[in-house]
């Protein structure tokens, strides 16, 4: 924290509060500066809210403008609290007036250090040291301090499990005893600088298919090849070299030793000859004046076809191509990816780095590249190092020994063009003669196969060797090679490559510790922990509830001839009309008024008159509170005969007789699917009015796709105007010119519509600081806790109940039995197929094999000719391809517009009753056979196995 603020040890206030480790606790001391903690917290929240766009909005967003002004007001008070003199105060204020400084200060002084969402203390300290370092030494990539999630959630959980396993293995035996003795412990962490592009290659880590939406221009062209081609085989630095060829270097235009740190964006990389890079440019920042005429001619040949290079004209050309209307944004908009720029803009963007040091466009490009680097994960190893450091720091904090624990980072390269990289060393060792058992070739990386487990151990060993050679007797390792010893192979008298260093360090596969399988805890284990009193956040690391709350409304009720009917009220031409729920027909919600009158007495419903129409309308929050209390009582003991339980049971209803309905906000583009929903609802007329209005206003024929309106690009402005007018009830002035936006509007126009639970509905109680209680419905994610396990969450939490009337009768019963997956087994044909019907259909059962597993039923080896003749009835001369036939068959259609009549009903007749209730099917076709796979409910497959066992 001291380094972050730019203070030396002598400037620390003597009366500062001491922490548990005996050091100055500046966080407690700075709390005396009124408003400082709040401003720091606001800065942290601003980072989380705006993310990578924070810098772009500092001068346009009113909240950020006010926050910046507040920070400037606080800095003098902070100087006064730290008792700085005038000269020191001036430097202090100039250094620390950034929102980023204040956000980082909050994380270091008062932030929660648990988890990746909060900056780990190691990273914050590391960043502070790097910010204060003005030496010319090469700097590693800064550890990010943005308090946002920078990595995929599923991958994060997986790495978190691994980090805790690793930390636990070394904690009890090594670290804990040393810390308890009072020793200072520094842990070395070696990171391989991955060439892994996180966003585009996430599917590799997760073992899933590549997302179609992540395709990028030239994605199959290697990055190095693109950089080589961009140079046109001409060295930018060496005026004597005419052709580079393949024997060149990929150079950083802004060198790693600069004050900006390492900028690994493609825009900052340029291909140069080895002489030009290593001897001429070396470690300097160059300008256009230092570049060769031949190189500039190759880059700007359209502007200077005859070779008369004018560097001032090139600078004006770069400014013309990149300068936008605002000083903080480019002409092409926000920068996301170098490959996404046009070829002309790529040339201008890269060469803007050669503009004079004080040029604002150069500063903007560098700032953009720095900003972008913060928003990318620098490899999974980088993230794992942070998790490890954070986990071990938390363990040390529990002992009060966090001040005795430090971390030292070593980074090595995996760039194949770098001769001191793990890739180069591995390639070298694979061609060397090693002792028996140390041969690396069996573990070589194959592009078509996943990396062998021991191959990762080899990479770690090589990273360790490179770190030892690069930092002899330095840092936390304090290791050096013996005299005349090298990690690179030596050539013996016979001309054979030998390597003894690797053989001394490497751990053979047979010497490795037993394999530790890292996987999440089973659900039934989590349920047991909840029932034993553990807090939900201690047991479940994933989001338990779905993201959005589910709306709920209670029907209006009307007394008709002494009976109570449910429905809703609509106002038409100033007249109130009660619409009876169509599902009730002549059946009332209650045959008398006893229950509703009792609810009125309790203040849960009110008898109101709307335009002279008498209806009973719910006081929604009061009703939900009443229901919550009844469902909470069932946690102790169900009391179904109590008045409250009976009234709540009536309100919650049974099946179609529910006296409430769910709501959700849906995009207006989903009007076709909303209008297709079964039965009338309170929102039907409004959606119908919107849809018919758009039909009349649209200038093109209405197009629909999967229940959604397709709005053509030419109609976007018309659509936006119509939606705004409909929702805000603003009359559309047809004579006004409609503004045609340059891009599709980002706003999603929505209206309330009938909703459907997507998980286990639960009623949540929230209590404000003033004691006010509010209730709302949230869906429990069934992928985290299923219907059988969800009761455990309600039992554990006093503010959660399951929104289910059966609870009033049965109470909360959580299933704690381990889930058993049904492995693939072959079962008798008679267990899945009706033998009699198969005989009538002349289906030969002898070659057929039936296999059941989990929720799948595979019927294999059906004769293809029989299948075509009996289940795909041709009525068209032109033969359709099999993939199209199978698609039609599996879709469940009975007629495909005259192309092929589908005799799927005939196939259903061949199945036993239990197998008919499929949730979908797929076909696998070979030259002579067809296999059908049915997706069933797991309970159905288990039932089939049980029946088979009983028989």
UniProtKB/TrEMBL annotation:
Highest taxon listed in the record's lineage? Bacteria
Query: CRISPR-associated endonuclease Cas9 alpha-helical lobe domain location, by residue?
Result: 56-133
Q: Which Pfam families match?
A: Csx12 (PF21069)
Full protein name: CRISPR-associated endonuclease Cas9 alpha-helical lobe domain-containing protein
Organism equals: Vibrio sagamiensis NBRC 104589
Write the lineage as a comma-separated list.
Answer: Bacteria, Pseudomonadati, Pseudomonadota, Gammaproteobacteria, Vibrionales
């Amino acid at each position: 924290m001291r380094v972050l603020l730019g203070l030396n040890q002598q400037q620390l206030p003597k009366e500062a509060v001491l922490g548990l480790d005996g050091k100055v606790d500046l966080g407690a001391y700075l709390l005396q500066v009124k408003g400082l903690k709040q401003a720091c917290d606001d800065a942290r929240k601003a980072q989380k809210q705006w993310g990578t766009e924070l810098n772009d909005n500092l001068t346009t967003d009113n909240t950020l403008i006010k926050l910046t002004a507040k920070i400037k007001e606080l800095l003098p008070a902070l100087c006064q609290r730290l008792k700085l003199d005038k000269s020191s105060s001036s430097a202090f204020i100039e250094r620390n007036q950034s929102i980023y400084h204040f956000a980082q200060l909050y994380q270091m002084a008062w932030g929660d250090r648990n988890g990746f969402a909060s900056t780990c203390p190691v990273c914050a300290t590391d960043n502070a040291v790097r910010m204060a370092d003005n030496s010319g030494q090469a700097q590693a990539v800064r550890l990010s301090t943005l308090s946002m999630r920078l990595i995929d959630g599923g991958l994060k959980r997986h790495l978190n499990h691994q980090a805790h396993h690793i930390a636990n293995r070394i904690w009890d035996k090594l670290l804990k005893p040393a810390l308890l003795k009072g020793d200072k412990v520094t842990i070395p962490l070696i990171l391989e600088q991955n060439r892994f592009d996180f966003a585009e290659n996430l599917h590799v880590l997760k073992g899933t298919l590549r997302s179609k939406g992540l395709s990028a221009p030239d994605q199959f062209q290697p990055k190095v090849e693109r950089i080589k081609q961009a140079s046109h085989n001409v060295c930018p630095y060496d005026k004597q070299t005419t052709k580079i060829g393949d024997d060149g270097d990929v150079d950083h235009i802004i060198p790693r030793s600069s004050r900006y740190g390492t900028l690994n964006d493609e825009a900052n990389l340029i291909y140069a000859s080895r002489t030009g890079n290593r001897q001429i440019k070396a470690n300097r920042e160059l300008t256009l004046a230092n570049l060769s005429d031949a190189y500039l001619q190759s880059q700007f040949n359209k502007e200077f076809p005859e070779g008369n290079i004018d560097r001032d004209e090139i600078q004006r050309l770069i400014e013309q191509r990149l300068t936008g209307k605002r000083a903080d944004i480019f002409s092409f908009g926000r920068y996301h990816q170098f490959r996404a720029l046009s070829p002309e803009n790529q040339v201008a963007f890269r060469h803007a780095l050669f503009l004079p040091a004080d040029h604002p466009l150069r500063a903007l490009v560098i700032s953009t590249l720095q900003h972008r680097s913060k928003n990318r994960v620098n490899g999974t190893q980088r993230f794992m190092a942070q998790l490890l450091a954070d986990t071990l720091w938390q363990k040390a904090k529990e002992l009060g020994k966090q001040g005795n624990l430090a971390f030292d980072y070593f980074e090595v390269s995996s760039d194949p063009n770098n001769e001191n990289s793990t890739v180069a060393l591995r390639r070298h060792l694979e061609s060397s003669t090693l002792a028996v058992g140390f041969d690396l070739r069996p573990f070589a990386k194959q592009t078509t196969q996943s990396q062998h487990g021991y191959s990762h151990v080899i990479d770690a060993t090589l990273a360790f060797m490179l770190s030892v050679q690069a930092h002899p007797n330095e840092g936390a390792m304090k290791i050096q090679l013996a005299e005349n010893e090298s990690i690179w192979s030596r050539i013996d008298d016979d001309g054979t490559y030998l390597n003894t260093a690797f053989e001394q360090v490497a751990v053979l596969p047979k010497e490795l510790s037993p394999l530790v399988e890292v996987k999440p805890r089973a659900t039934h284990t989590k349920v047991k922990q909840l029932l034993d009193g553990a807090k939900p956040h201690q047991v479940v690391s994933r989001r338990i509830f779905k993201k959005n709350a589910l709306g709920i409304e209670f029907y209006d009720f009307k007394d008709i001839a002494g009976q109570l009917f449910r429905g809703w009220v609509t106002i038409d031409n100033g007249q109130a009309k009660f619409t009876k729920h169509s599902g009730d027909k002549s059946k009332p919600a209650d045959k008398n008024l006893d229950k509703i009158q009792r609810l009125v007495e309790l203040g849960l419903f009110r008898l109101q008159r709307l335009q002279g129409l008498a209806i009973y309308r719910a006081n929604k929050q009061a009703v939900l509170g009443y229901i919550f209390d009844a469902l909470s009582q069932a946690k102790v003991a169900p009391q179904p005969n109590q008045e409250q339980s009976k009234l709540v049971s009536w309100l919650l209803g049974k099946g179609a007789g529910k006296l409430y309905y769910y709501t959700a906000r849906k995009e207006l583009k989903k009007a076709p699917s909303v209008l297709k929903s079964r039965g009338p609802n309170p929102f039907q007329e409004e959606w119908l009015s919107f849809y018919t209005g758009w039909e009349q206003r649209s200038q093109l024929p209405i197009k629909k796709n999967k229940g959604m309106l397709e709005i053509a690009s030419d109609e976007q402005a018309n659509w936006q105007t119509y939606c705004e007018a409909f929702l805000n009830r603003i009359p559309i002035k047809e004579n006004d010119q409609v503004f045609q936006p340059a891009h599709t509007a980002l706003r999603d126009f929505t209206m309330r519509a009938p909703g459907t639970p997507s998980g286990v509905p639960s009623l949540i109680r929230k209590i404000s600081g003033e004691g006010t209680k509010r209730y709302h419905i949230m869906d429990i994610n069934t992928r985290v806790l299923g219907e059988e396990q969800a009761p455990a969450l309600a039992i554990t939490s006093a503010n959660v109940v399951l929104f289910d009337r059966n609870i009033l009768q049965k109470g909360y019963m959580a299933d704690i039995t381990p889930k058993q997956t049904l492995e693939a087994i072959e079962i008798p044909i008679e267990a899945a197929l009706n033998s009699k019907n198969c005989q009538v259909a002349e289906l030969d059962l002898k070659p057929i094999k039936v296999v059941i597993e989990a929720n799948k039923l595979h019927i294999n080896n059906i004769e293809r000719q029989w299948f075509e003749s009996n289940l795909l009835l041709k009525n068209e001369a032109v033969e359709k391809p099999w993939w199209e036939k199978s698609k039609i068959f599996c879709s469940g259609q009975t007629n495909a517009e005259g192309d092929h009549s589908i005799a799927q009903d005939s196939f259903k007749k061949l199945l036993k009753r239990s197998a008919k209730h499929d949730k979908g099917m797929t076909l696998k076709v070979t030259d002579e056979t067809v296999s059908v796979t049915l997706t069933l409910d797991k309970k159905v497959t288990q039932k089939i196995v049980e029946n088979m066992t009983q028989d």
